[in-house]
Amino acid sequence: MRSIAKIASALIISFGLANASEYKIDNAHTNVGFIVKHLMITNVKGEFKTFDAKVDFDEVTKTFKVFSANVDTASVDTGIEKRDAHLKSADFFLSDKFPKMTFVMKSYKADGNEGEMSGDLTIRGITKPVVLNVEDLATIKDFEGNNRVGFTLKGKINRMDYDLKWNKALELGGVAVAEEVKISVDVEAVEK
């Protein structure tokens, strides 16, 4: 009886994976961004210009079977060269030693056009579990008849968990850079 149950489970999993298609990130229409408070009063936004990802997506069930991403830490861009150089330094990403940060999905819970992606985020060689909310999940055929998927990933991390500890205390209280970092990634990918 156990053998039959194992075979049935394997078939269900295989069938689910068979429906998934591999998608290639459209870098021209994807943005890997972040937001962090500066001086406790304003948001500073930045992005990473160089990245890649592996996406296996099932359009029928609107679920991700695989999502993993690599981001080049030296490609950080906040629009201010001096600040970007500081972010690449040992005070933050230490890009010379840790050129990549990675995310590997462990599970996905679908809820229509939204969902919850749980996985491991690695920055500076430190891996921690994170949960990213999937919003605005949509599929479409493009002008050339290719299937495309688009979605937004949103979440929060504490940068101190990843040894991104540089800061300065403010004279009247507070700090120069908040510990909480908001993640906002807009993804568009085309079926291979």
Automatic annotation (TrEMBL):
The keyword Signal applies. Residues 1-20 form the signal peptide. The keyword Zinc-finger does not apply. Residues 22-190 form the Lipid/polyisoprenoid-binding YceI-like domain. SUPFAM superfamilies: YceI-like. Keywords: Signal. This is YceI-like domain-containing periplasmic protein. It comes from Arcobacter venerupis. The lineage of its organism: Bacteria, Pseudomonadati, Campylobacterota, Epsilonproteobacteria, Campylobacterales.
